């Protein structure tokens, strides 16, 4: 960056810090990542929105979900408790003891990594683009569908002999 001698150096900055509240669930270690996000901080609405997404996931897969969670205020509110009771047949919530979530919940380490290495360094042209950029980054965390390849019709014996038993 060039400037005339004696003039102050001007470096463009992103402006004030913005917050994006995210509440998410991850099937550990390799499963889908489901989340809800909004401008501002984490609130009960994010938890309830994610619970609805988890419930719809159980209907797609026909499998129940066990949700390991901490005791944040967005989870312990009256509305959140009512939502947890509503989805209880499909989503079983397992609450961790207070002050232990960083040690017992592996997703807390994922959040820490994202905050320190990605979100804290994310720059956008306009402040209005920050929330969308955050959501796009989180969307990239979702695993991509695998392409299934067809297996050969006949498998040969590892030693080169043909096997009469189908593999």
Salient structural properties:
single chain, alpha+beta, 6 helices, 4 strands, 14% strand, two-stranded antiparallel sheet, Nucleotidyltransferase, domain 5, disordered C terminus, elongated, two-stranded parallel ribbon, 167 residues
Characterization of this structure:
By secondary structure, this protein is an alpha+beta fold. The protein has a single domain (20-140), classed as 2-Layer Sandwich (Nucleotidyltransferase, domain 5). The chain has helices spanning 44-61, 73-76, 78-86, 101-104, 106-117, 130-140, and strands at residues 20-26, 33-39, 65-69, 91-95. The strands form two sheets. A two-stranded antiparallel ribbon has the order 1-2. It has a two-stranded parallel ribbon with strand order 3-4. Helix 1 (44-61) runs parallel beside helix 3. Residues 163-167 have low confidence and may be disordered.
Strand line-up across the major sheet: 1-2
CATH superfamily: Ribonuclease H-like superfamily/Ribonuclease H
Give the number of helices.
Answer: 6
Separation of the first and last Cα atoms: 66 Å
List the helices and strands and how they pair.
Layout: E1 20-26, E2 33-39, H1 44-61, E3 65-69, H2 73-76, H3 78-86, E4 91-95, H4 101-104, H5 106-117, H6 130-140
Parallel strand pairs: 3-4
Antiparallel strand pairs: 1-2
Helix pairs in contact: 1-3
């Amino acid at each position: 960056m060039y400037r005339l001698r004696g003039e102050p150096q001007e470096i463009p900055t992103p402006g004030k810090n913005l917050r994006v509240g995210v509440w998410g669930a991850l099937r550990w270690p390799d499963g889908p990542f489901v989340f809800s996000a909004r401008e501002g901080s984490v609130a009960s609405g994010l938890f309830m929105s994610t619970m609805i997404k988890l419930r719809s996931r159980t209907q797609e897969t026909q499998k129940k979900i066990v949700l390991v969670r901490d005791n944040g205020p967005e989870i312990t509110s009256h509305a959140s408790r009512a939502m947890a009771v509503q989805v209880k047949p499909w989503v079983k919530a397992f609450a961790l003891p207070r002050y232990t979530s960083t040690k017992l919940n592996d997703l807390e380490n994922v959040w820490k990594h994202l905050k320190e290495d990605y979100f804290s360094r994310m720059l956008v042209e306009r402040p209005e683009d920050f929330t969308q950029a955050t959501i796009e980054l989180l969307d990239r965390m979702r695993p991509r569908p695998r392409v299934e390849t067809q297996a050969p019709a006949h498998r040969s014996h590892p030693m080169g002999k043909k096997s009469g038993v189908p593999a």
